[in-house]
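HUMAN: You are asked to prepare a plain-text protein record giving the amino acid sequence and the backbone structure tokens, both parts labelled.

ASSISTANT:
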Amino acid sequence: MTNEKIAAIGRRHTHEAMKPADNGRPARPGSSGRSRIGFVGLSAGAGATTMAFAAAEYLAALSKRTRTVTFLELNPGADAPAGRPYDKIGIDRRFAGRGFISHYRLAAEGKPLHGVNNMDGGIGWVLRVPGEPDSAPSAAALIRLLNNVPGDIIVCDISAQGFLRSGGQDAAGRDTLLALLADLDRIVCIFDPLPSRLLAAVPATEVCRAAETAGLPAIYAFNKLNAGVNLREATRFTGAKSYISIPAIPAETVYSAEYACRSLASEPEIKTALCTIFS
């Protein structure tokens, strides 16, 4: 697929998505002058991590060091559904010789988080480190991370499936997810249009809609679009009237990026599409 075609797909529906995102309300300023944007994967492997990587890189380049950007992984489970962000971009390799600080471990031990940063590529990284901490983080620890990690712009990678165990019947997980969303200034809710994953996304979609009803601006996105997707059926099922369309990433691009410890968002053809959407 050429860069021109990818950019064209990225532009489609983007202008429609902007109106319902605000719902007639101005964007809410973050407390203490900070902005918090959440990318919510509504099912396992929906692509929230890739989108959050792209947003962090885009905003870091746009800010030109006038504002600091932090990438924050919010995952309550032992593992991310589609692999850890820590491993996806090869943090061990990026931080070889200088060490990577585990904010999750500091939060679990009740230690200060202000001024603690893992800077690389103009972004501060707050990620789950394999094996640290040994137990799953509490709701209080996750909320503390969201509200205390350094940065002017906090880009959050949120795995909704990690919170909504047992098909969304876990009331505590649902309440924690709602509490985290309530502290954000905007969310981007990401669907994988595969029918089985749209079905799996129903509980998370309900939580996002509840947060939207409470006043949180939300944008909906369909990721991994390809010739086999029946977008009309997908939008009918989800009730998404306005949305962003994101093309499927060629498998060889995914593999080559991860082998090289690069973010998918840094691949030229992907960057063309995502920068079109963000701009």
